[in-house]
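Reviewers of the previous submission asked for a worked example of the structure-prediction workflow described in the proposal, so we include one complete record here. The input consisted solely of the amino acid sequence. No template or homolog information was supplied to the procedure at any stage.
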Amino acid sequence: MLFNNSQLTNLLSQLENTSDCIFVTGQAGTGKSTLLSHFRNHTHKQVVVLAPTGVAAVNVKGVTIHSFFHFKPDITVTKAKALAAKSRNSDLYNNLDSIIIDEISMVRADLLDCVDSFMRRVTKKDKPFGGKQVIFFGDLYQLPPVTTKNDEQIFRSLLYDSPYFFSSSVMSQIKLKLVELNHIYRQKDERFIKLLNNMRNNKLTADDYCELNRRVNPDYLPLVEELVIYLTTTNSMADSYNTQMLQELRGETRVFKAISEGVFDKKTHPVPDRLELKIGAQVMLAHNDPEGRFINGTMAKVISLDADGEEGVTVELADGQRLTITPRTWEMFQFVYDQTKHRIESSVVGKYTQLPLNLAWAITIHKSQGKTFHKAVLDLGYGAFAHGQTYVALSRCVTLNEIILTKPITPSSIITDQVVATYLNSLRE
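From that input alone, the workflow returned the following structure tokens.
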């Protein structure tokens, strides 16, 4: 369905047949992740897929930026050059055609300068990224780079205008082509799409606020049979609610323990090492079904803890469909250069096996990114505290009518960074 879209077909050709440095962006639900996966799986180029966090890397079958370049958390440009000078993987870096970075909105300017400095030194070419094509995927209106107050002082001392990737020194040296995907697949309601776009650009009208706040219901209680998820701003809020709801269910608790092999960072585990379930537990499926019966983020209820003798459970989806869910294995990769094939290959260095389920009465807005929900309650607690947070939450939903707000949305709920709008406008000119 996705590649009937002429814009995406043309973009795939551009990615494959040029060495242009490209920034692929667009509103939530425009198919960025699907496009990235399709290109990576079908390209003839030698590419690596990188991401700023372990969770994001697992989602795109890539590796983290730090892992690929062997950066430590305290990496600096000077340290990056030193690492490149003594790298034992120079064949890997030199034989690259393209470096793909997903979730670019979360990549800090100083980290991108470290990548640039490393690539210049290891390739012995004083060109941006050692002359390699870079392809960025992400939405700057969603999650920003994570910085502390101490980080912000460091940024100022290094003369960065902002922590965003586009404020890096290297980005002033390349001509970046902007491609904005414009077809939204998640939502079909034109009024809701327009409202989300206004929110994304911090241009909500009085009518928009009025329409949004018709969804306020602080006393809302979901029906027992409803699959409703609470979107929260903090891990503690989500964890507390999930624990409370599980404890309120009657019946025995069954514990499913994960099996980890090789190298698989605990912080990147897609589901819990120790998963506690009861009959009636509300869960979220944590991967895309090859048969198309569900996707990552599909909600379900546990109806049996014994799946016909298998190590698994039976769940019921919102449409009444019943599925047997058995353990799934996720893989951790590393990229290597195969001297005999003269190709860059990805090899498995670790595996993690567990039921692909998370308790899902509640989830943080951050962890909801990339998922689609049919009914959700937005609980901002003490308010949004990060750029794009409210937009990310509301754009997870298919229609406005399936959103419940625990409190009114006000202008203070919509945090956007003007430097993002200014940068994107400069690329459009």
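The chain has three domains: 2-184, 190-222+375-419, 229-359. We consider this example representative of the routine output the project will generate in years two and three.
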